[in-house]
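Reviewers of the previous submission asked for a worked example of the structure-prediction workflow described in the proposal, so we include one complete record here. The input consisted solely of the amino acid sequence. No template or homolog information was supplied to the procedure at any stage.
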Amino acid sequence: MIRFDRVFKRYPNGREALSDLTLEIAAGEMVFLTGHSGAGKSSLLKLVALIERPTRGQLIVNGQNVAGVRRSKVPAFRRRIGMVFQDHKLLSDRTVFDNVALPLIIAGVGTKEIGKRVRAALDQVGLLGYEQNLPLELSTGEQQRVGIARAVVSKPDILIADEPTGNLDPDLSLEVMGIFRRFNEVGVTVLVASHDLYLIEQFPVRRVRLEAGRIAPEPQSGRGLDPGQLIDLEEAPSP
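From that input alone, the workflow returned the following structure tokens.
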């Protein structure tokens, strides 16, 4: 469970990324965060992962108030959260196996268990057999799936993704979102930030639209429109 209670996030330069945000995401729920660039989506995800801390307000993640998590306990806190990024953040000089195994190595998991869990994670994203490949030998879509395998290898309660399909074509984007949906179906809480409205329309889950750091009403559904007509209205140029 994730609960924001009147949360503010202000950066040192004075920019307020989140303002009086109240939001609750149930355990096992899948939610899309939408909104234009700068609306606060990435900041919200960073707070959930304790990459950043709220300036004011209360944030509860997995039943724990993040304000009470000491710096020394942050790595343990993050082991329960899988993170997927748009640019993969893979180590180019390490094999697929080593990239996926990294969170387990840091956590001190035994070698035999690491091998078992890495292969299981790669199997879940359709990349079993690619263990000894280097990331640059893979397609962009395959690299993103390696990133997902790394995010889930620790069996997290929560999976968050920041624009995970931003560099992918529509078919690959749908495939990646389908992977997130499958993890959600087995009980993982999934929170995905995306501005791809056409892609989001393919999944009947809750959407939360941010605007200037606040929750805004959802625009009228675009179902039934041609995909080429679907744009994020907030990103359209001013007349």
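The chain has seven helices and ten strands. We consider this example representative of the routine output the project will generate in years two and three.
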